[in-house]
Write a structure and sequence with these properties.
The complex is a heterodimer of chains A (about 270) and B (about 575).
Chain A: H1 2-22, H2 36-68, H3 83-112, E1 121-128, E2 131-136, H4 167-170, E3 173-175, E4 178-181, E5 185-192, E6 197-201, E7 206-210, E8 216-221, E9 226-231, E10 244-250, H5 252-264
Parallel strand pairs in A: 1-5, 4-10
Antiparallel strand pairs in A: 1-2, 2-3, 5-8, 6-7, 9-10
Chain B: H1 2-8, H2 17-22, H3 27-57, H4 64-69, H5 81-116, H6 125-144, H7 176-205, H8 218-249, E1 261-262, E2 265-266, H9 274-308, H10 315-329, H11 345-357, H12 359-372, H13 382-404, H14 407-413, H15 417-447, H16 453-479, H17 498-528, E3 569-570, E4 573-574
Helix pairs in contact in B: 3-5, 3-6, 3-17, 5-7, 5-8, 5-9, 5-15, 6-7, 7-8, 8-9, 8-10, 9-10, 9-13, 9-15, 10-12, 12-13, 13-15, 13-16, 15-16, 16-17
The chains are: A alpha+beta (about 270), B mainly alpha (about 575).
């Protein structure tokens, strides 16, 4: 009896899980990046491969428990013994993981092995407990150097700029939200002023940690206008849950207007 | 040399309560001490998870006991964001170290391994006693963090630097709390290293006559392999912890780079690397999940033959070689925790491939368990139900691994609740289920009494369904991008997930409530349970060839000879390893 109940419970759990995944009860938002479809495709591919193993594993487990629960008489081993099982694991699972590695490396490579487009719009991002700040180079196209000792939130010097002594820093534009033009390659450089943080935009399919002491490049191109949440996914302290900013993907003209307004507010 | 050690272990029984039950050198008492510590820790860890789950789903619900425990952390019973993170940090620390590492390895291993190899005690009984008491000091240091003004640290069980390294400027709990935490973990490392050494030497040198490695019970095999993994992994966590302690207390900068600014103040550090900490931590941290799960493999592989009444398919070799492969590969996969850490993206591929390939020995182990059921006569006593539950949970947990092993898919799912669901299945609850299987299985041997079967089964059904309700849902919200380690969901896209949060909280409360059935059963049966025979399950290994509970020297001075492997079962019939009669299963 216990065996039959076990089998039924396992089958039910398997079906409910599969149903929730297939019908996307809670799911990824629509992708808005150029590279995103490759990642989505890889997730679907993995759902297929891993999902089949999941369903097969649970159903075989359930059916053996159902069939052989409480059986009597001389027990027997599966014909052929362990050899076919080991061969199965090496051949089938080996092929699956090789395929995932191979295809997956392409998806990863397309995002991370490619050099950023030389015409990319470069934006600096500074993360600190518990906010993000963004910096545009201004008309001169050059970022002023950073001086951590000058960082002062009270004076709104979030990056540690010294416009009095660094000409390149004079026209830098610092903002609390990030605006980007649609269909334009973007190159972010991530810095943290204190602890580890992360830059996660679900719709962009981008997640990248900030590591104090390192400048970490991230590049992407957004293809759909809109306003999206950037959230921190690296535990950074008590305000971690509330560390967020917004990414606005704008048409080129809207972006130009927005940046002008931001420059005027400096 | 081996002879001398065998004789050295035949120490006389200690007299007096303190030497007999507190500072005991008897491996059985030490095993019970580890199990008791783990059980207390598990209920503390579970209570913390209850508090967190209630807070996440019902942020306005007051928990008066928290307000009493920490007036600052939970004024009027409503926890602050920092206190949430403190509870989360301690949940992870207590569960990963003091429950999942302690119970299936140190707890059962201590009690059972020496008996299974036919020895009178561990090779080094005093070292064994030290292992437990150093672990206990580690536990006290961790527990003490609840009672200091700033409360426990909030940097998670992974304690990433520089959050964990710079001191109280990084937030409440990062002062004394984090220091106590580091010292606690260092203690745990020392204890684990001593324990691992003892397990290895005992298995190699203390085996009784005829007990070749090919006749070793599968649980002992797994503890033996596990001890090697522990020895190599904790040997890295210990210096990692000490360097962190030096950064905190000695003004060094191993993990802290220059140019850090807190509260507009430049910190007096330079030249350290936060990524170095992550590499050292995960060099331990990934083997650690196998340190947790390998004993579970062993316990389940040991229990299976007794309740299917035949040997495992492939005998001792296939499952054991799979375990050795898993243990070995576990040392070359740690970078999969760091795909989005800022590590070189080329390194991601280097770590992704072995991570995917570790699936192969894991799948072989699962196939051994599942296909051993073919043609079996399965008996559904509680230990077997829990073993079957383990197999189901482990399959489900393993599936999530496919997504997290690939950098491209991980880059979306990393740090979401998908990861939390995944590791709770694969190593958390799987190991807990195997621990329960071991507990129901060896309880009659440990205490000489049997646990109540009806309560045991009820406990199983509620736990099994409860686990799926909570942790599958975490996978699903992870697909929606719900971020882990958040004390509240203020983001626009996470608010619609609140119904899922409430479902998980209610399920977790029921799942937790079911554990009190177990607690009652364990305590009640200790005094009122029916007396057990020496071999209630009709099993074949040496722990069943002595009385329940075993005498001080385990076999009453008998020197046993082993004639068979551990899986001599054929339907009702079975042959004890010590019986000279003919083999019936050819092991």
């Amino acid at each position: 009896m216990a065996g039959k109940v076990f089998a039924v419970v396992v089958v039910l759990v398997t079906l409910v899980t599969a149903y929730c995944v297939v019908t996307h009860v809670w799911w990824m938002p629509v992708d808005i990046s150029v590279h995103g479809p490759k990642i989505d495709h890889q997730i679907e591919e993995t759902i297929l491969v891993a999902g089949l193993l999941f369903i097969a594993g649970q159903i075989v487990l359930a059916s053996f428990v159902f069939r052989y629960g409480g059986a009597t008489g001389k027990p027997k081993q599966i014909p052929g013994g362990a050899k076919p099982l080991v061969i199965f694991a090496f051949v089938l699972v080996g092929t699956e993981v090789l395929a995932l590695s191979f295809i997956g490396s392409k998806a990863w490579g397309a995002v991370y092995f490619e050099a950023p487009d030389p015409s990319s719009l470069r934006i600096d991002v500074q993360a600190g407990q518990f906010a993000y700040y963004f910096r545009y180079s201004g008309p001169d196209g050059k970022f002023g150097p950073l001086h951590p000792e000058l960082i002062n939130e009270g004076n709104q010097n979030y990056f540690g700029l010294d416009p009095d002594h660094d000409p390149d820093a004079k026209d830098d534009i610092v903002t609390a939200e990030i605006g980007i033009p649609v269909n334009k390659p973007i190159l972010l450089t991530l810095h943290s002023k204190d602890v580890g943080h992360s830059f996660y935009v679900r719709e962009l399919r981008v997640q990248q940690d900030f590591v104090p002491g390192l400048s970490i490049p991230v590049h992407f191109t957004a293809i759909q206008t809109g306003r999206y949440e950037i959230v921190c996914t690296q535990l950074c302290g008590l305000g971690h849950y509330n560390m967020k900013a917004y990414l606005s993907v704008l048409s080129q003209s809207d972006f130009d207007d927005w940046l002008k307004k931001q420059a005027a507010m400096q | 040399m081996a002879e001398t050690q065998v004789h050295a272990a035949h120490h006389a029984p200690s007299q007096g309560f303190i030497r007999k039950y507190v500072f005991s050198v008897d491996h059985k008492i030490i095993g019970i001490q580890y199990l008791t510590l783990s059980m207390v820790s598990a209920f503390i860890g579970m209570a913390l998870s209850w508090a967190m789950r209630i807070h996440l789903a019902y942020p306005d619900f007051r928990i008066p006991i928290l307000g009493w425990l920490s007036p600052n952390g939970a004024p009027n019973g409503l926890m602050t964001p920092e206190y949430y993170l403190s509870l989360m940090t301690m949940h992870g620390t207590i569960m990963a170290f003091f429950v999942l590492t302690a119970a299936p390895f140190a707890g059962f291993g201590n009690f059972v391994l020496p008996i299974q190899v036919g020895a009178a005690d561990m090779a080094f009984p005093r070292l064994n006693m030290s292992s437990f008491w150093v672990t206990f000091v580690g536990f006290l240091l961790a527990a003490a963090t609840f009672f200091i003004p700033d409360g426990p640290p909030l940097s998670g069980w992974t304690a990433y630097a520089p959050l964990s390294a710079v001191g109280s400027v990084a937030g409440p709990g990062q002062g004394l709390g984090q220091t106590l935490w580091v010292l606690s973990i260092a203690m745990f490392c020392v204890a684990s290293l001593m324990g691992a050494l003892n397990f290895i030497v005992t298995t190699l040198d203390m085996r009784t006559k005829g007990l070749t490695l090919s006749r070793l019970p599968l649980s002992t095999w797994a503890w033996f392999i596990d001890a090697w993994v522990s020895l190599l992994a904790f040997a890295v966590l210990l210096p990692c912890g000490l360097l962190l302690a030096l950064d905190r207390l000695g003004g060094t900068s191993f993990f802290i780079p220059g140019g850090l600014v807190f509260n507009d103040q430049l910190q007096p550090h330079s030249g350290g690397s936060p990524l170095l900490f992550q590499h050292l931590f995960w060099f331990f941290g990934h083997p650690e999940v196998y340190i947790i799960i390998l004993p579970a493999f062993g316990i389940v592989s040991h229990i299976f033959p007794t309740f299917i009444r035949k040997p495992l398919v492939g005998g001792w070799k296939v499952i054991t070689f799979a375990e050795i492969a898993v243990g070995t590969l576990s040392f070359v996969v740690w970078g999969h925790h760091m795909f989005v850490s800022g590590m070189s993206p080329f390194m991601a591929m280097v770590f992704s491939v072995p991570t995917l390939f570790i699936t192969i020995p894991s799948v072989i182990a699962v196939l051994v368990w599942v296909f051993s059921l073919y043609g079996a006569n399965i008996r559904f006593d509680t230990p077997m139900l829990y073993s079957l539950g383990f197999v189901s949970l482990f399959i489900t947990g393993g599936i999530g691994g496919f997504f997290l092993a690939q950098p491209s898919t991980d880059s979306y799912l990393h740090a979401t609740s998908f990861v939390v669901g995944h590791f709770h299945f694969t190593m958390g609850l799987s190991a807990i289920f195997a621990t329960f299987a071991g507990f129901y299985y060896w309880y009659p041997k440990i205490f000489g009494r049997t646990m109540n079967e009806k309560l045991g089964k009820l406990h199983f059904w509620l736990s099994f369904v409860g686990v799926y309700c909570v942790f599958i849902t975490l996978h699903l919200t992870g697909f929606a991008g719900s971020v882990r380690r958040y004390s509240a969901f203020v983001d626009d896209f996470m608010i619609p997930l609140m119904p899922a949060q409430r479902f998980m909280t209610i399920s977790a409360l029921l799942l937790g409530a079911a554990q009190f059935i177990f607690l009652f059963n364990a305590i009640w049966s200790r005094f009122k349970g029916p007396k057990s025979s020496d071999n209630p399950w009709g099993a074949t290994t040496l722990e069943w060839a002595t009385t329940s509970p075993p005498p001080f020297d385990n076999f009453g001075g008998r020197q046993l000879t082993v004639y068979h492997g551990p899986m001599e079962y054929d339907d009702e019939a079975s042959v004890m390893q010590t019986s000279p009669e003919a083999s019936i299963a050819g092991t």
